[in-house]
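hiii, so i know i said id send this last week but things got crazy w the move. better late than never?? heres the sequnce for the chain we talked about at the cafe, plus the structure i predicted for it. fair warning i was half asleep when i ran it
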Amino acid sequence: MRFIFSNAGCFALSALLLCMRSGLGADPDVKEIIRQSTEHQSRNWKLAPEYTFTETDVVTEKGEVNRRTFKVLMLDGSPYNQLIAEDEHPLTPEHQAAEQKKLQEEITRPTTE
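okay and structure toks below
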């Protein structure tokens, strides 16, 4: 099972947890909740590139099963799927090079913000 949290989702979750924690004592300080939430989100953003995992997609069409395995890594806060195997076999050196080239192009592509 895969969970991907958007920036807004992480912000809302952090704010909710801080509100619950602060509800045990005095009234919550809104500025402090926002400060802590922003701090947590910033820390999560910095850590995201360190977490990669593999994912295998299995597709059955007309009785034929195809498996594609990806290394999933974060690029600028979004998941990037790099193909690393097909039908449980590693890619050929040529196909690996093509996938690496796609990754490098994605890394160097200007953001559209």
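btw The chain has two domains: 7-48, 52-108. thought thatd interest u
miss u guys!!
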